[in-house]
Design a protein that fits this description.
- The protein is of the alpha/beta class and 336 residues long.
- Helix 4 (78-87) packs parallel to helix 5, helix 5 (102-114) runs antiparallel to helix 9 (301-323) and helix 7 crosses helix 9 (301-323).
- The strands form two sheets. The protein has a nine-stranded mixed beta sheet with strand order 14-13-12-11-7-10-9-8-15, covered by helices on one side. It has a six-stranded parallel beta sheet with strand order 3-2-1-4-5-6, with helices on both faces.
- The protein has helices at residues 13-25, 40-48, 57-61, 78-87, 102-114, 130-140, 174-190, 282-296, 301-323, and strands spanning 4-9, 29-35, 52-54, 68-71, 91-95, 119-122, 146-156, 194-203, 210-219, 224-230, 232-243, 246-250, 262-269, 273-279, 327-328.
């Protein structure tokens, strides 16, 4: 299989430190171009060993050899550049959250389908094999009937000045940035629809951005969820599923790459406890998965549906923290 040729639309830190190195590790991909708004891109391209550097995003989209565009722009710019990339005939991997409401996401998916290009939201954590193992444990009945999903994702943002995650107009805040992982994992692992939710937030007084949020979720089959996310707490990225006979906990659920890819699953029952270790290279596996979908015209409908569910719940969470009310999903209409 010929390597899929990638272009990077932005010199964002995540592109330089995670995606570009991952593309280089991938067996079916190569990065051939990078773009930014201005001349700084040349020094960055030289440092990263990328031959083509463009001083505008439009120039990158006009490069006929580039097949895939990776978009790590601020959240509020995702829709604009996904649509522009699609209309230029490029396949798109877009950083999470892909959209800030359901209407934006549907327009992005619709345009990509019309232009016959692949589109995927970049939740890289899901490609680690530890999550499939968790599903196997649940399906085996070892922990009994699932009753509760708990997830925490936080880090302490030491230098927030000028950080786009602290800019409300750019789609900043802990809910969109890290809470999205817990919501995504809850639906990925359990496969249940959210019925209602109620969340509280702590706001930064200067920026009005949520720096922490805490909430309760009601899902189908009497399952509940407890989620917290924060820019103002020590680093945690974990989830736990509690059943009638035991629990299964994933300690490094969302960023196992920070521990050389090592995943750790702890399974507890009334009589036993064991720890299972599993490895994975989440960014590399994400790149290879998407590149394979590009080459084989793979069906990414499942990924699109997870994105739909995720943005719907996240937007409802935003409404809950603003109104200080419980949101019933069946009655909720996004008016953005």
């Amino acid at each position: 299989m010929n390597a899929v040729k990638w272009g990077i639309l932005s010199t964002a830190n995540i592109a330089q430190t995670q995606l570009i190195p991952a593309i280089r590790r991938a067996e079916n991909a190569e990065v051939i171009a990078i773009a930014s708004r201005g001349p700084k891109v040349h020094a960055i391209a030289e440092n990263l060993g990328i031959k083509r550097a463009y001083e505008s995003y439009e120039e990158l989209l006009n490069d006929q050899e580039v097949e895939v565009i990776y978009i790590p722009l601020p959240n509020n710019l995702h829709k604009e550049w996904v649509i522009k990339a699609a209309k230029a005939g490029k396949h798109i991997l877009c950083e999470k959250p892909a959209a800030l409401n359901e209407a934006e996401l549907e327009e992005m998916i619709t345009v990509c389908n019309e232009e016959n290009v692949q589109f995927m939201e970049a939740f890289m954590y899901q490609f680690h094999p530890q999550h499939m193992r968790v599903k196997e444990v649940i399906d085996s009945g070892e922990i009994g009937e699932v009753k509760l999903f708990k997830s925490s994702h936080s880090f302490y943002l030491t230098d927030s000045k000028g950080d786009i995650r602290m800019d409300a107009e750019k789609g900043g805040g802990a809910i969109w940035d890290v809470g999205c992982y817990s919501v995504h994992a809850m639906q990925l692992i359990l496969g249940k629809e959210v019925k209602s939710l109620s969340f509280k937030r702590i706001i930064d007084s200067k920026t009005t951005v949520d720096v922490s949020a805490f909430g309760i979720v009601e899902l189908e089959n009497g399952i509940h969820g407890m989620i917290d996310c924060s820019f103002d707490m020590t680093e945690r990225n974990e989830y736990e599923i509690v059943g009638t006979k035991g629990t299964v906990k994933v300690k490094n659920a969302f960023r196992p790459d920070r521990l050389s890819g090592n995943g750790q699953i702890t399974i507890n029952t009334l009589t036993t406890e064991r720890i299972e270790q599993t490895g994975g290279d989440i960014y590399k596996q994400e790149v290879e998965y998407f590149s394979d979908a590009v080459r084989t015209n793979g069906d990414l409908t499942v990924q699109h549906n997870y994105s739909r569910k995720n943005v719907g719940v996240l937007h409802a969470i935003q409404q809950s923290v603003i109104t200080n009310q419980q949101i019933v999903l069946a009655d909720y209409v996004c008016n953005d």
